[in-house]
TrEMBL record:
It comes from the Bacteria. Its main location: cytoplasm. The lineage of its organism: Bacteria, Pseudomonadati, Pseudomonadota, Gammaproteobacteria, Alteromonadales. This is Alpha-1,4 glucan phosphorylase. It comes from Brumicola pallidula DSM 14239 = ACAM 615. It is found in: Cytoplasm. Signal peptide: none annotated. One of its GO terms (cellular component) is cytoplasm. Keywords: Allosteric enzyme, Carbohydrate metabolism, Cytoplasm, Glycosyltransferase, Pyridoxal phosphate, Transferase. It catalyses: [(1->4)-alpha-D-glucosyl](n) + phosphate = [(1->4)-alpha-D-glucosyl](n-1) + alpha-D-glucose 1-phosphate. One of its GO terms (molecular function) is pyridoxal phosphate binding.
Length: 832
C-alpha cells in the first residue's frame, strides 16, 4: 500500500541519521572558518546576522557534498524523476530545517553556545523564502521535503522572484503592503548555475514553410529573447542522504543587447530592454485564489516552463541522445495547478517544430509525461487566458493549442455525436465575446492523470467540474489527499512536544507518522495528560511573549488560545469568526456573569492588495480588537489579536501554542486546507465545517475529538438552489441582527460611523455569498460545546492527545507515496 511504500523508503533513514558523525568541535571550527574566510569578520565583531550566515555556510558545505553524491547516483542509475512545476514554493527558513534533517541541531546549538551565541537568536536572522501565497506554495515545499526524505529523484522548478510575498504592516488597523526582499543581503543557500542558462523566445510571428517532402514547417521568429538564469536551492531530506534541488529561474536580458542604440549614445534607452527582461521574475503575484489575467503573469508562466523544459531535455539528451522513445519513461512532469499548463503546448512545439516528430508521436509523448493537480473549484481561480493575448506573446503556441483542441473535439464528437453543448463545454477554447483559452481543460486533455487534493474535493472535481472528462477517460481523475511534513511542522517547530513524544514512543515518528498512534494508549493517562498540557502551556507562554513583542498586547496564558491562520478570503470566513466574537462581547456586556472560559482569539492573514473586502475584514478585526482589548468590562475574558505579517516562520511559533483551530470555510469551497493538519498535529482541537480535509481529519480523530458544525456540501447546494436570503436570518435572529447593526455604528471606529459597514453589506444586501449567516447558529452552538469541553481539563487533554496521535495519515510522505503509486510510478534510489 501507499503507506507501506512511504514507511519502507524512509525506514532505514531514521536509523541512518545517527551515522552522520560531525562533532561539536568540527561544527564550531567550520562556523568560525566561514566567519573568517567567507564573511571576512571575526568572533568579536560578528553580529547575529553574520553568525547566521556563517552557520548556514557551514551547513551548506555538508549539504553540497550530499548534493554531489545524490546527483552522481541519479546520473549513474539513469533514474526516472518527477519534475514538480510550480509558480510558487513557500519554503520559509532553511537553517533549522537543514540542521534537523542532518540530525545536527543539538550539536550546532552546543557549538554555538561555546562561541557565546544563542542558536535561537541566530535562527531569527533568516528571512523567510516567501516565494508563494499560501497553501499551494507551502504544499510544494512540503512535497520537496518528502521526496528527498523518501529518496525519490525529484526536481522542483519555479521562479526566482526577486520579491516574494509582500511584507504586511498594520497601520491604524489597515493592511499596508511593503516589498519583501528575502535575498537583499545575500542568501547562503542558493547557488547560481550560469552554465545552465536558457534562452526564452517571446512575441514575434510564425512563418509557414513547405519542405521538399511536402511537409509543412512552422518557424517562430521571436520578437524578443530573454535569458533564464538558474539558481539552485538544495533540498535536504530527513536523514540527509538524498539532497534534491529546487531550481528557480531568474530573468535577464539576453546577449541580444541593443548595442547599436548603446553605441550611438543611447545608453539609457539600451537599458530599457534589460529592465523589461528583468521584470519577469521581479515579483510574485500576491493573489491566492484569483487569476491575475495580466500579460506579465502569462509571460512569467511561460518563462519558467520554457526554461525548465529545455533543462529537462538537455539532461535527457545527455543520457539518451536523440532517442525520444524513452522520454516519458524517464520524465514525469507534475503541474501544480494550471499555472504551468503552457508547458503542454511548449513541449509539443519542441517535439514537432524542433525535433520534427510527427504530431501523433509528439502528442503520445506529451500525454504520457504530464500530470495535473487541481487545487480549487472557485471559478475566479480557474485560469483562462484571452486568445489574443497568447497570440501576441506566444504566436506559435496558440496555433498548437487550436490543433490540440481540434483533435480533441473530434474525440468528443465520436463519444457524443452531434452534441454541440458538450463540445462547447469541453472545448479548450471558450467561445465567449472575447475568446479565451481554458487552462484547466488544456491541462486535463494534455495529462495522463488529474488529481484533486482531498477526498471531497476530488469527488467534486469529478462530479461538478469535469464530469464529462470522467466519462471520456474513466480513471484519469484521481485523489491524492494533501499532507504536511512532520519534520518542520512538529519536530522542528515544537521541540518540547517532540521530546515528550520521543520519550513516550521513541524517535521514529518523523519518518513514519502513523507511529504517533501509539500515543492513543496514553490518552487517558493522567500523568501523560499533565505532561502534554504542560508542554502546551509552555508553548502558549512563548507565544504570549511574541504577541506582546509584536503588538504590545498582554494575553492570559490560561485562556483558550483560539487560532485562525490562513489567507484572508471570504470563503474562509474570518468574518464569521469575527461576528461571533462580537456576539460574545455583547453577551458579556449584557450579562457580566455570562459563563465563558477566557479566550484569546488570534488571527494571522494577508489579503491580496486589490481585494477590498478582504482588507476591510482585516480592518474590522483590528478595530473590534482595539475596542475589546481596551474594555475593562470584558478584557479579562476576551482578547483579540491580529498578528501582522503572517508567514511560515510566524506559523511555526503560533501552531504549537494553539488550543483551538478554526477551519470554518463554507462547505465545498476549501479544496483541502493544510493548516488544519498542522494545528491538529500539534494538539489543537478543530472547530470546523465538513469541508476539504476537515472531513478526513474528523474520520481519523473521531466525532468526540472535533467540533463539527454547519451545512454539508449537499446542504449548501440545496440552499443555493432553493434560493438563499440572508435577510431571513437577520430578521429572525436577534443576536445576528444586533451584531450586524453594530457594524454600522461608530462604536468600534469612533467618529467614523459606517467604516465597517462593508462587512454588513456583504452579508446582507451583498447576498452573503459564503453563507456566514446560514451557518451562524450552528457555529455558535459548536463554540458553546467547545467552551464546556475546555472546562473539563482531563477531557480536553485527552482530545488534544488524540488529535496528535491520529494525524499519521496527514504526513506529506503518505501524499507522496500516493502520488508514486497512483501517478508517478517512481522507484526510490538510495544514495550511499
Ligand atoms: O492544495 C493546497 C492548497 O491549495 C490552495 O491553497 C489553493 O491555492 N488553491 C487551496 O485553497 C487549499 O485548500 C489547498 O489546501
Amino acid at each position: 500500500t501507499a503507506k507501506e511504500t512511504a514507511r519502507k523508503s524512509t525506514k532505514a533513514k531514521s536509523a541512518d541519521t545517527s551515522s552522520i558523525t560531525y562533532s561539536k568541535a568540527q561544527i564550531k571550527q567550520s562556523i568560525v572558518k566561514h566567519l573568517h574566510s567567507t564573511l571576512g569578520t571575526d568572533e568579536n565583531k560578528a553580529n547575529n546576522h553574520a553568525w547566521w550566515k556563517a552557520t548556514s555556510a557551514a551547513m551548506q558545505e555538508l549539504v553540497l557534498e550530499r548534493l554531489r553524491t545524490t546527483q552522481k547516483t541519479h546520473y549513474i542509475n539513469d533514474t526516472r524523476a518527477v519534475h514538480y512545476f510550480s509558480a510558487e514554493f513557500l519554503m520559509g527558513r532553511l537553517l533549522s530545517n537543514n540542521m534537523h534533517n542532518f540530525n545536527l541541531f543539538e550539536t550546532a546549538d552546543a557549538a554555538l553556545k561555546e562561541l557565546g551565541v544563542e542558536l535561537t537568536d541566530v535562527l531569527e536572522e533568516e528571512p523567510d523564502m516567501a516565494l508563494g501565497n499560501g497553501g499551494l506554495g507551502r504544499l510544494a515545499a512540503c512535497f520537496l521535503d518528502s521526496l528527498a526524505t523518501m529518496d525519490l529523484p525529484a526536481i522542483g522548478y519555479g521562479i526566482h522572484y526577486e520579491h516574494g510575498l509582500f511584507r504586511q504592516e498594520i497601520k491604524n488597523g489597515a493592511q499596508i503592503e511593503r516589498p519583501d526582499s528575502w535575498r537583499h543581503y545575500g542568501n547562503p543557500w542558493e547557488i547560481c548555475r550560469p552554465e545552465s542558462i536558457q534562452e526564452v523566445p517571446l512575441f514575434g510571428y510564425v512563418e509557414t514553410k513547405y519542405g521538399a517532402n511536402g511537409r509543412v514547417k512552422k518557424e517562430w521568429h521571436p520578437g524578443n529573447i530573454v535569458k533564464g538564469v538558474p539558481w539552485d536551492i538544495p533540498i535536504v531530506g530527513y536523514g540527509a542522504k538524498t539532497v534534491n534541488v529546487l531550481r528557480l529561474w531568474q530573468s535577464e536580458s539576453s546577449d541580444y543587447f541593443n548595442w547599436d542604440v548603446f553605441n550611438s549614445g543611447g545608453y539609457v534607452d539600451a537599458q530599457r530592454e534589460n529592465i523589461q527582461a528583468e521584470t519577469i521574475s521581479k515579483v510574485l503575484y500576491p493573489n491566492d485564489e484569483t487569476r491575475a489575467g495580466k500579460e506579465l503573469r502569462l509571460i512569467q508562466q511561460y518563462f519558467f516552463c520554457a526554461c525548465s523544459l529545455k533543462d529537462i531535455i538537455r539532461r535527457y539528451k545527455r543520457a539518451h541522445g536523440d532517442d525520444w522513445s524513452r522520454f516519458s519513461e524517464q520524465v514525469v512532469i507534475q503541474l501544480n495547478d494550471t499555472h504551468p499548463a503552457i508547458a503542454i503546448p511548449e513541449l509539443m512545439r519542441i517535439l514537432v517544430d524542433r525535433v520534427e516528430l510527427d504530431w501523433d508521436t509528439a502528442w503520445g509523448i506529451c500525454t504520457k509525461t504530464f500530470a495535473y493537480t487541481n487545487h480549487t473549484l472557485l471559478p475566479e481561480a480557474l485560469e483562462r487566458w484571452p486568445v489574443r493575448m497568447i497570440e501576441k506573446i506566444l504566436p506559435r503556441h496558440i496555433e498548437i493549442i487550436y490543433e490540440i483542441n481540434h483533435r480533441f473535439l473530434s474525440l468528443v464528437e465520436k463519444k457524443w455525436p452531434g452534441n454541440n453543448v458538450i463540445k462547447a463545454k469541453l472545448s479548450i477554447i471558450e467561445e465567449s465575446t472575447e475568446k479565451m483559452v481554458r487552462m484547466g481543460n488544456l491541462s486535463v486533455v494534455g495529462s495522463f492523470a488529474v488529481n484533486g487534493v482531498a477526498e471531497i474535493h476530488s469527488k467534486l472535481v469529478k462530479e461538478n467540474l469535469f464530469p464529462e472528462f470522467e466519462a471520456l477517460w474513466p480513471g484519469k481523475l484521481k485523489n491524492v489527499t494533501n499532507g504536511i511534513t512532520p519534520r518542520r511542522w512538529l519536530k522542528a517547530c515544537n521541540p518540547l512536544l517532540s521530546e515528550l513524544i520521543g520519550k513516550k514512543i521513541g524517535n521514529d515518528w518523523p519518518s513514519d507518522l502513523t507511529r504517533l498512534n501509539k500515543l492513543s494508549e496514553f490518552a487517558d493517562n493522567t500523568t501523560f495528560q499533565n505532561q502534554f498540557m504542560k508542554v502546551k502551556q509552555k508553548n502558549k507562554e512563548a507565544l504570549a511573549a511574541e504577541i506582546k513583542h509584536l503588538t504590545g498586547i498582554s494575553v492570559d496564558t490560561k485562556a483558550i488560545f483560539d487560532i485562525q491562520i490562513k489567507r484572508l478570503h471570504e470563503y474562509k470566513r474570518q468574518h464569521l469568526n469575527l461576528i461571533h466574537i462580537m456576539a460574545l462581547y455583547k453577551r458579556l456586556l449584557e450579562d457580566p456573569s455570562y459563563d465563558m472560559h477566557p479566550r484569546v482569539f488570534i488571527f494571522g492573514a494577508k489579503a491580496a492588495p486589490g481585494y477590498t473586502l478582504a482588507k476591510d475584514i482585516i480592518f474590522a478585526i483590528n478595530k473590534v480588537a482595539d475596542k475589546i482589548n481596551n474594555d475593562p468590562r470584558v478584557n479579562h475574558i476576551i482578547k483579540v489579536v491580529f498578528l501582522p505579517n503572517y508567514r511560515v516562520s510566524l506559523a511555526e511559533k503560533m501552531i504549537p501554542a494553539a488550543d483551538v483551530s478554526q477551519q470554518i470555510s463554507t462547505a465545498g469551497k476549501e479544496a483541502s486546507g493544510t493548516g488544519n493538519m498542522k494545528l491538529a498535529l500539534n494538539g489543537a482541537i478543530t472547530i470546523g465545517t465538513l469541508d476539504g480535509a476537515n472531513i478526513e481529519i474528523a474520520e481519523e480523530v473521531g466525532d468526540d475529538n472535533i467540533f463539527i458544525f454547519g451545512m454539508t456540501v449537499d446542504e449548501v447546494t440545496e440552499l443555493s438552489k432553493k434560493g438563499y436570503n440572508p435577510f431571513d436570518i437577520y430578521y429572525h435572529n436577534n443576536e445576528v441582527k444586533a451584531v450586524l447593526d453594530w457594524l454600522d455604528t461608530d462604536y468600534f471606529t469612533p467618529g467614523q460611523p459606517g467604516a465597517l459597514s462593508s462587512l454588513k453589506n456583504s452579508m446582507l444586501s451583498g447576498g452573503d455569498p459564503y453563507m456566514c449567516l446560514a451557518d451562524y447558529e450552528s457555529y455558535s452552538e459548536a463554540n458553546r460545546a467547545l467552551n464546556i469541553a475546555y472546562r473539563d481539563k482531563s477531557r480536553w487533554a485527552k482530545m488534544a492527545i488524540l488529535n496528535t496521535a491520529k494525524m499519521g495519515k496527514f504526513t506529506s510522505d503518505r501524499s507522496i507515496a500516493d502520488y508514486v503509486e497512483r501517478i508517478w510510478k517512481l522507484t526510490p534510489c538510495t544514495v550511499e
